[in-house]
Amino acid sequence: MSVEPPALDVAQIGHSYGARRALDDVSFSVPAGSFTVLLGLNGAGKSTLFSLITRLYAAREGKIEIFGHDVARESGEALRQLGVVFQARTLDLELSVMQNFVYHAALHGIGPAEARRRGQAALERSGLADRAKDKARDLSGGLMRRVEILRALLHEPRLLLLDEPTVGLDIKARADILAHVRALVAERNLAVLWTTHLIDEVEPTNDVVVLHQGKVLAADTSANIIAATDTETIGAAFERLTGAKMRDAA
Amino acid sequence: MTSETSGFTARQYAICLAGVVWREALRFLHQRERFVSALVRPLVWLLIFAAGFRQVLGVSIIPPYETYVLYEVYITPGLMAMIQLFNGMQSSLSMVYDREMGNMRTLLVSPFPRWFLLGSKLLAGVAVSILQVYAYLIIAYFWEIEPPTPLGYLTVLPALALAGLMFGALGMLLSSAIKQLENFAGVMNFVIFPMFFASSALYPLWRVQESSPFLYWVCIANPFTHAVELIRFAFYEKISWESLAAVAGYTTLFSAGALIAYDPAKGMLMRKGG
């Protein structure tokens, strides 16, 4: 038997917008059941990478696999394993929380009765059972994000991508979301790729991929990257690797 | 195109389609001002414009009509098509809006094949446009605008479905090309108004031919003309084969264009960057 393939395997991905090179020879992988941070400044190429992984557009150079399924050739199988929380808010504001769940479930072939059952259970686990009928418009920013994360997990994916999920949230909401997702990794053996430009969201045991100007400068555990760069913190390591100041928005 | 086998059952495809249509209908019901304006627009034409012009424009007996008809009766199929044209363009606007808001991404990240997702979205828009047309017909009924027999309400349904599909596909094709929300004003000026006026919606084409042969050929080539005629004949329980062929042909053409535009490998989304 072969060993289980990584949750996400990005191999030699390149992408250009016209003459501008957005990604160049990007390779890294996210092991199953791990919390991996994709660290990069705005404009590093994180969003482009996200669009390629989610097949918004096709990778022309290199290959992306989700649990061994090529996103370009077996996109159905690959996307089935994938839950996504986009940087932009994507809840239907006119619809209730539960209606948003039912719509998302339908997009994965899950019927309304089962969607309601899963949705209610997810809300109860998160202490949000009384919010099912609230309109998405009436939720706070932090709550909206938590609902988006619950929604992304309704079809029980094994890999969760989050694109700058804490942008625009206050410190408490940020901490809540981070704790929530870390708990999911531990409880469900979920693989997470968490992109951010906020250094304080990295823990020493996390895998970190440093993306800068479209290139991967380091991909290892946070502790190893710190050691290899002969620095004290991941923030200092990032600055040494990139020559850029990382904003530490604590 | 997307050739993957997603491994979904027919029931799951049905669930996905029903979910997309259900969401579109819910959104439509929540946006009451959209519903009201969809009704007010044709009613303004019917109750004000047509009333003013009925004395100016005489309509001779032309198929499918077998007697002289009031101008209000003549322009009703054109107004039905106009409702659908606006709706098709509005769906395209909502796709641009959705794309900016990320809702389109939520749709496209679904594991179902992309042609199926876009097709579902298209059908959802058509369903909404048919609801609007029937709401208009209910009001028009009180102005004594009705088909010769009640059966006309039923026979017009397939015509509305096909015309709705054509406008939806056209809207989808345009939506891939429109980047900014504000450009809907451009769509109004460059798509909706020319299509509406250069057609048989407001005046029979023989009148156009008398004044300008060139414009006549523009009208003949205009997909909107054929949608209007298809609806006009169907409302009178008849079929205009020529219009049916034209609408079917344009629908195929626009759908193919939209699929290419939204195809991840070739699409225009890619060129725009993100």
Characterization of this structure:
- The complex is a heterodimer of chains A (250) and B (274).
- Chain A is an alpha/beta fold and 250 residues long.
- Chain A is built from eight helices and ten strands.
- In chain A, helix 3 crosses helix 4.
- The N and C termini of chain A lie far apart (46 Å).
- In chain B, 75% of the residues lie in helices and 0% in strands.
- In chain B, helix 2 packs across helix 5, helix 6 packs antiparallel against helix 10 and helix 10 packs across helix 11.
- The longest helix of chain B is centred in the N-terminal third of the chain and has 31 residues.
- The chains are: A alpha/beta (250), B mainly alpha (274).
- At the A-B interface, helix 1, helix 2 and helix 3 of A face helix 1, helix 4 and helix 12 of B.
How many E-type strands of chain A? 10
Quote the distance from N terminus to C terminus of chain B.
Answer: 22 Å
Query: What is the molecular shape of chain B?
Result: globular
Overall structural class of chain A, as computed from helix and strand content, comes to alpha/beta
Mean pLDDT score of chain A, rounded? 91
Integer average pLDDT of chain B? 85
The radius of gyration computed from the alpha-carbon positions of chain B, rounded to a whole number of angstroms, is 19 Å
The number of distinct helices of chain A, counting runs of at least 4 residues, comes to 8
Low-confidence stretches of chain B: 1-5, 270-274
Strand fraction of chain B equals under 5%
Task: State the helical fraction of chain A.
Answer: 25-40%
Strand order of the largest sheet of chain A: 6-7-8-3-9-10
N-end to C-end Cα span of chain A: 46 Å
Proportion in helices of chain B = over 70%
Biggest sheet layout of chain A: 6 strands, mixed
| Structure summary, number of beta strands of chain B | 0
